[in-house]
What we know:
It is a single chain. By secondary structure, the protein is α/β, with parallel strands linked by helices. Helices cover 34% and strands 25% of the residues. The protein has helices at residues 42-49, 72-78, 94-99, 114-126, 142-155, 172-189, 202-206, 223-229, 254-267, 295-308; strands spanning 3-13, 17-27, 31-35, 57-62, 65-66, 79-82, 160-164, 192-196, 209-214, 217-222, 249-251, 275-280, 283-288, 311-313. The longest helix is centred in the middle third of the chain and has 18 residues, at 172-189. The chain is globular and about 80 Å long. Residues 310-315 have low confidence and may be disordered. Residues 2-240 form the ABC transporter domain. Keywords: ATP-binding, Nucleotide-binding, Transport. This is Iron complex transport system ATP-binding protein.
Amino acid sequence: MSKFLEIKQLTIGYSNPLVSGIDSSLELGEVGLLIGNNGIGKTTLIKSILGQNKLLNGEILINGKAIQELDENQIAQQIAIVFSKAEIPDNYTVTDLISLGKYIHYPYYFQLNEADKKEITEILRKLNLSEFENKKLTELSDGNLQKAFIGRALAQNSPFIILDEPTTHLDEENKLMILSLLRNLAKNENKLILFSSHDWRLAKEFADKIWWIKDQKLISGIAEEVILSHPELSQPTILNFNQSFFPPMIDAPELEKEMMFSYLQKNFDKDLRKFKLTFKNDFWDLNSDKFYDNYHTFQEIKQALEKLLDTRDIN
């Protein structure tokens, strides 16, 4: 497979660099996942690939041509884009919006031919939007609206599709459906898919490559290799928002540990460092070295845990 997207020694940003020294590539038939914290440069990188941001250094090649050498129509023929926040055209129906994907192939005033109409009908079916084909966009749920914008990108028939947080407003069923559809498009129709997300866990199931922006650099590679070489990607992050709360020692797998920390933090404004919680054999053990000195707090924790799950006490 040839490299459809090549990035060489790229620096992106505005008055100051956001990400520097980017060297990476993606090929037709691949799915790439772009991850990173808010404000770290994900959308800036996407806009740079689209030719919307001036490059501070380096180059971006689309199908062998520098992005600066392509005009808007040429870029649209190569790349379809779905942003997480898009303006909703007044009085447009779902079919109207998806039909706009055909705009790049025709003059400003055009009529869909029968092949176009058949393709749009098929896109509606794939996205489970057939029953909403004549529904106004303003009347759709967030999830169905996002799917309609994805439908417009599919109708564009570009070899490269970029999606900025495409599953943000989708429930689990629609999220899995969209991601499965994107992967099938990559594999069965030889399209390059790049989507950004806060959820790195999508990578293992749906992405071939990870692009991870961290510390003003882009870490890239095969999804499994990037995860294995960066353990922080496979461990939940515990967020302490309660400054009056001091957690007990929690001995548990990372996911159970995160959930217990979250539960206690929401229910206690006190110092629990004299206690220990241990998860084993699907039970939680609660212990304190000085049980009688901490009896009342022990009972508070015990009662709180009993609301959440079965517990076993150790005195």
